[in-house]
Amino acid sequence: MQLNLSDETPPAGYERLLFVEDKTSGLRAYICIHSTACGPAAGGCRMWNYASQSEARADVLRLAEGMTSKNAVAGLGLGGGKSVIIGNAASDKSEALFRAFGKAVNSLQGQYYTAEDVGISPDDMAMIAQMTPFAVGLDHGDHGSGDPSPFTAEGVFQCLKVGAAEVFSSGDLTGRKVLVQGLGHVGMSLAEKLHQAGAELIVSDINADAIAQAQARFGASVCAPEAVFETDMDIFAPCALGGVLTHETARRLTARLVCGAANNQLATPDVAETLRARNIHYLPDYVVNAGGIISVAGEIHQAGPEYRQARLAGVAERIQQILIASRETGKTTTCVADEMVASIIADARAQQAGAA
Ligand code: NAD
After folding, report:
1. Which of 22, 190, 225, 315 is most buried, by the most CB atoms less than 10 A from its CB?
2. 215: which residues sit within 8 A by CB, 6+ positions away?
3. Statement to judge: residues 83 and 224 lie in one domain
């Protein structure tokens, strides 16, 4: 291992940006700590075939900041951070690469906890964990939390019911037309919950097997990926990619409620205004999809199942508060959520300053 760790100057508002290189294994990665105001930073590790180092840098900065918001609003006692490994998840993985990455995470001495994100499996995380205790989301061991997706789906489902109660004056989903975009780890689990709750499911995916499964198991009707914004629905649950809501798609969307797991659903923050102008209630993604990091936080804090259950219930309560505040103030739900985050972080900083 020839590990080289170089601190880069992060943008204003960020605490640390580390570029990691190991010539022996070919590892090239960024680790970013956005904020430790609320506690040690936590956020997944993504492996992606970035076109350039600067693209990876931009991604890690954006993702780390998002984790600060997500962890703060979920009340996890954790700050925000993220890491990205530059490489092809299908062909560039090796034990040496993950061990080198684990050593880099360990060098931060618990200021950053890593877990799975896109391109990283529990097996990869186990290799990272050979070099550091600050790797979580493990499939084994006394406190391993395993796959976070069922927790994410449960959180989304609870929020969706709260949103339905606000928009349709009833959280009863019987007969509600819900379009689930993306039937992956989270989307399929959410679809199952919606089916059990009596919703009329419409599903969309580029994976024919997933579609066939949803048709067979839930009697779902199918919508072609390009027809989502032409389809009649009550609720839209984006569980595939980020950036699906642009000004243009927001103008065509037939739903009155948006609640899904995908990160960064709004292509730009001001799409929230377009949605509100059309009286479409948007439930901020980083609040709604916190179930996964809640599961991981349970592992970090070595807490029992009651910790996860309480925090998951808290996610739906937060959404309720956000909807009420948005209704009363006329602000968008994203604006209310962002203000909530700012206030939680300011309180945490004041406490840190008081304790120092
Ligand atoms: P996944 O990779 O298991 O599933 C994604 C699904 O979307 C796949 O079935 C894929 O075929 C489908 N898809 C891709 N492009 C599509 C398109 N154009 N139209 C329709 N379907 C398309 O991912 P996941 O773990 O289920 O996560 C889903 C989303 O939720 C991601 O944005 C992820 O970042 C976010 N998220 C996941 C978790 C978690 O616990 N897994 C937590 C927070 C946020």
Report:
1. 190
2. 203, 222
3. no
Eight-class DSSP state of 11: P
Identify the domain containing residue 96 by its residue range.
3-67+78-128
Largest CA distance in the chain: 61
253/195 Cα distance (integer angstroms): 22
- How many angstroms separate the CA atoms of 315 and 324, rounded? 14
Q: How far is CA 80 from the centre of its chain?
A: 12
| Whole-prediction pTM | 0.92
The structural domain count of the chain equals 2
CB of 275 shorter than 6 A to ligand 1: no
Residue 285 DSSP label: H
Domain assignment present for residue 141? The answer is: no
Residue 177: name the closest of 216, 215, 220, 135 by CA.
220
210 lines ligand 1 (CB under 6 A): yes
166 and 219 together in one domain: yes
pLDDT reading at 205 higher than 90: yes
Closest ligand 1 atom, residue 295 Cα: 40
Residue with CA closest to ligand 1 atom 30 = 262
Question: Is 85 in the same domain as 170?
Answer: no
Summary mean pLDDT of the chain = 95
**Ligand 1 closest atom vs CA 151:** 40
Q: What is the amino acid identity at position 14?
A: Y
Same domain, 173 and 84: no
- Quote the pLDDT of residue 147: 78
Measured distance CA(347)–CA(46) in Å, rounded: 30
Residue 20 belongs to a domain? yes
For residue 139, the model assigns a pLDDT of: 75
Residues taking part in catalysis = 82
pLDDT value of residue 142: 57
Average pLDDT of the residues in 324-333: 96
For residue 294, which of 108, 106, 158 has the smallest C-alpha distance?
158
Residue whose tokens read 């998002």: 66
